[in-house]
Write a sequence for this structure.
């Protein structure tokens, strides 16, 4: 089971165990880790926006054109931003670190 580390400003890092094949959004919902996901993973709202460390961003499969286009509209997005609903955990993702943004805004 891949370990995932969630960072939220002002709080201690939270290390949890994900399931292979589970999205970051589903993991966050299952463990109540503070990611909204207003569109329930349909890649329509951006409230599951997360920021990865460079090393973790580079080891994931690249975002789709659709995800990239949506991220272009996300306030506070950066070069290593992804949507949690689009990151599906694999065994290779063990130790992945995700920064939760200070705020999210639904694009619905």
């Amino acid at each position: 089971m891949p370990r995932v580390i969630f960072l939220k400003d002002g709080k201690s890092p939270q290390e949890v165990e994900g399931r292979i094949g589970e999205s970051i959004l589903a993991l966050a919902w299952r463990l109540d880790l503070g990611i909204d996901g207003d569109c329930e993973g349909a890649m329509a709202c951006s409230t599951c926006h997360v920021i990865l460390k460079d090393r973790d961003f580079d080891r994931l499969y690249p975002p789709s054109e659709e995800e990239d286009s949506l991220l272009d509209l996300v306030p506070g997005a950066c070069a290593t931003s992804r949507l949690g609903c689009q990151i599906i955990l694999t065994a290779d993702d063990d130790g992945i670190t995700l920064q939760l943004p200070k705020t999210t805004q639904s694009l619905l």
Notes: The chain has one domain: 3-100.
